[in-house]
Amino acid sequence: MQNPCGQCSKTFEIVGEDLEFYDKASPVLNNKKYSISPPTLCSDCRQQRRLAIRNERTLYKRKCSLCLKDMISIYFQDTVSPIYCQGCFWSDKWNALEYGQEINFQEPFFQQFQRLMEKVPRLGIVNKQAENSEYCNYSFANKNCYLTFGNHYEEDCLYGCYSTKNKNCVDYLWLYKSELCYECSFSKNCYGSIFLDHCENSQECLFSIDLKACKNCLFSQNLRHKQYYIFNQPYTKEEYFKKLTAYNLNNIEEFTKAKKFFYGDFRKKFPFKALYQTNCENCEGDNHQNSKNLRNCFASTNCQDCAYGYQMDETYNSMDISCSGYDRCELSYETAGCSGIYHCLFCDSCWNNNDLNYCQLCFSAKNCFGCIALNQKEYCILNKQYSKEEYEKLIPRIIEHMGKNKEWGEFFPASISPFGYNETVANEYFSLEVKQVSLSGFKWKIPDKKDYIPQKYQVPNNIFDVSETIVNEILACCDCKKSYRIIKQELVFYRNMKLPIPTKCPDCRHKDRINFSNPRKLWMRNCDKCKAVIQTTFSPKRSEIVYCEKCYLQEVY
Question: What is the pTM of this model?
Answer without folding.
Answer: 0.94
